[in-house]
Amino acid sequence: MTLLEMINEDVIKVPLESNTKHDVFRELIEILHKAGKVKNTESVFDAVINRDNQMSTALENGIALPHAKTEEVNQLVLAIGVSPKGIDCDSHDGNLSHLFFLLLAPPDQSGPHIEALSEISRATKSNAFRRVLLSAQNAAEIVEFFCED
User: Fold this and answer.
1) Which CATH number fits the domain that encloses residue 104?
2) Please, which residues bridge with residue 99 across strands?
């Protein structure tokens, strides 16, 4: 499954309402739950927290990529959130995180999980990519951006 196939307005939140890392995780998980992509939200939250506790999933340049493998999803799923004001997520460069990509995969889908993480990581290295997502006013604008040639 490609990144584009996972993106629709139901799994995007602009702007995020949360002010803390854990609240962002919960908010994005709840979005996936409402979209029918996640079964037990508490179990998923625990999996994401456990993974983040191993090593911060907040990267550099305002990007956070919380992810986990869990039995609570049937396939690879993604939620995207934008926090214009930024949230302290213990990033590698010490900056606030603004763009969140929550990725969940079933335990038996390591390959697609790694490929999606890599694809997101590559895309977010672009200053232009990050600027466009940060300037989005709503989920529709993000979907439109991803669907452009």
Assistant:
1) 3.40.930.10
2) 63, 82
The pLDDT of residue 1 is 62
Q: Which domain holds residue 53?
A: 3-144
C-alpha 84/C-alpha 80 separation (Å) is 13
Q: What is the pLDDT of residues 63-113, one digit of tens each?
A: 999 999 999 999 999 999 999 999 999 998 999 999 999 999 999 987 888
pTM recorded for the entire structure: 0.94
CA distances, 42 to each of 29, 35, 77, 79, 119 (Å): 9, 16, 16, 16, 27
Total number of domains in the chain: 1
| Rounded distance between C-alpha atoms, residue 26 and residue 33, angstroms | 10
SS3 124: coil
- C-alpha closest to that of 18 among 9, 6, 30: 30
- pLDDT tens, 74-85? 999 999 999 999
> What is the Cα–Cα distance from 96 to 33, expressed in whole angstroms?
26
21-34 vs 41-54: helix axis angle to the nearest 10? 140
In a domain, 149, yes or no: no
